[in-house]
Amino acid sequence: MKKIPTLFRRDEQDRRRVTPEVHPACAWVVAGEGVATRKYDGTCVRFDGTRWWARREVKQGKAAPDGFVAVETDETTGKTVGWEPVEQSAYAKYHAEAVNGDEKTGTYELCGPKVNGNPERYDRHTLVPHEQAVVLTGDAEPPRDFDGLAAYLAEFPYEGIVWHHPDGRMAKLKRRDFPRPGAAGQRG
User: Fold this and answer.
1) What is the DSSP letter of 47?
2) pLDDT digit string (tens) for 46-91?
3) Hey, is 30 helix, strand or coil?
4) Cβ distance 97 to 52 under 8 Å?
5) 0.70 exceeded by the pTM?
6) How many CB atoms lie within 10 A of CB 119?
7) Could you tell me which of 66, 168, 46 has the C-alpha nearest to residue 109?
8) What residues contact 139, with CB distance under 8 A and at least 6 apart?
9) Burial of 169 by CB count in 10 Å (0-12 exposed, 13-18 middle, 19+ buried)?
């Protein structure tokens, strides 16, 4: 799985935040294409039909772990994104608790009590199939402009949004990409 691009360009002075400029690879979102789903807050794992893998980022200048399969390197940060065998990841124990043997080939979000502070509030470690992410429709459908999304995400109870294009492209946007309302440096 390649890193999903963020809908808006990052602020060069504060890379934690986005600017109103649309990322060129994501222009299809603001053009009204694709379907929005909620983004789950856990850690990404993948089942290839035989083996489980955990998503891993390796910082520039650091050695990759044994068995690491690189997918892409971010030219800006120098980080390489890829997969490591799940049994050697920091989440191996929790993944083992979540697997039930019925999983199909694909990617999942591993969520639960010991993953990222459990913002999803699961009682036990759980694998959420990405292909079954909740689609945001009707009153829950997000706007597609910068100001509208900033306001929408300020009230959104989840980590963020992932848009899915019919051709397989994806784009994401997280609540934390925008300054908190009332925070210093907030865009007006």
Assistant:
1) E
2) 999 999 999 999 999 999 999 999 999 988 889 999 999 999 999 9
3) helix
4) no
5) yes
6) 14
7) 46
8) none
9) middle
